[in-house]
Amino acid sequence: MEAVYILGAFIIIVLLVVRRSRKKSNKKKLAVPQNYVELLAQTVPYYQRLSTPEKSRFAASVKEFLETVHIEGVKTSAEPMDCVLIAAAAVIPSFGFENWKYFNLTNIILYPGAFDEEYRLDGERRPIAGMVGSGALNGQMLLSRPSVRAGFFDIHGKHNTAVHEFVHLLDKADGIVDGVPEKFLRHAATEEWEQIVQHEIGLIERGESDINSYGAVNHGEFLAVSAEYFFQQPARLKEEHPELYRMLSLIFNQQLA
Ligand SMILES: [Zn+2]
User: Fold this and answer.
1) How far is the centre of ligand 1, averaged over its atoms, from the C-alpha of 214 (Å)?
2) How many structural domains is the chain composed of?
């Protein structure tokens, strides 16, 4: 009788091992669009401004990002262009940090439009174009496709939703989204940064600033919103807000204007 049990257990183990190895071989390698360099050249203004060696480094980082982070569509499919734009948005704010990896991100969920707090796509009030997940959604990022595309196609604008969300992730690299990215800002400079943030938020609240008023919500949002401006319109930011420009250059380790 015992032999029957042992044989039974053996068969179950063999079946489990076979199933597991099948599952493994079914797991697709994440897709990198074949024409990703061409797509970057056509659609990403930040990339177009880089020197030839920088372009190679940028493209390599985009490829690596797409090989490690899964992008999936909900009620839509993520097209090659969407994947390349999202990866570019990931690389832009981290380009000053050699070999940076988003260790706090595994998955990106792309929605066909803006959504609400319950991730619904059908209500009239859908205020969210992108978010970094927390709690059960830790390691996930949610993005609305039209907002991702607008961030790259509206070349005169100051907004880029996907860059905004990746800046939150960089801010979160020290454990908390609080607008003080301690991993990238020397401790001595944090006080100066806080003073500039206070000053700029005051200007927004008094209606005396051209920075998106959402930046006045809290310091985390201020960092993300002003970073969008920095990466989209560096020369304008430098002219309008020289101190802010200087601090953002320091934080992201990039001179853009
Ligand atoms: Zn935000």
Assistant:
1) 8
2) 2
User: Are 223 and 116 contained in the same domain?
Assistant: no
Residues above pLDDT 90, as percent of the chain: 75
Find the 218 Cα to ligand 1 centroid distance in Å.
9
How confident is the model at residue 31, as a pLDDT?
A: 78
CA of 177 to the centre of ligand 1 (A): 9
Of 214, 240, 237, nearest to 248 by C-alpha is 237
Report the C-alpha gap between 49 and 97 in whole angstroms: 18
Quick one: 131 and 32 in the same domain? yes
Q: Are residues 88 and 178 in the same domain?
A: no
Residue 206 lies in a domain: yes
Instruction: Give pLDDT, residue 140.
Output: 94
- Report the DSSP pairing between strands 140-144 and 130-132: antiparallel
Q: Please give the pLDDT value at position 23.
A: 47
CA 38/CA 34 separation, integer angstroms: 9
Tell me the CA–centroid distance for residue 129 and ligand 1, in Å.
10
Which of 119, 147, 173 finishes a domain? 173
Q: Please report which confidence band the pLDDT of residue 26 belongs to, taking 50, 70 and 90 as the band edges.
A: very low
Q: Is the pLDDT of residue 177 over 80?
A: yes
Helix (H) or strand (E) run with residue 237 in it: helix 234-240
Tokens at 186, concatenated: 């020397």
pLDDT tops 90 at residue 240:
yes
Tokens 């796509």: give the residue: 121
Between the CA of 185 and the centroid of ligand 1 the distance, in Å, is 20
27 alpha carbon – ligand 1 mean position (Å): 33
221 CA → ligand 1 middle, Å: 5
Q: What is the pLDDT of residue 121?
A: 87
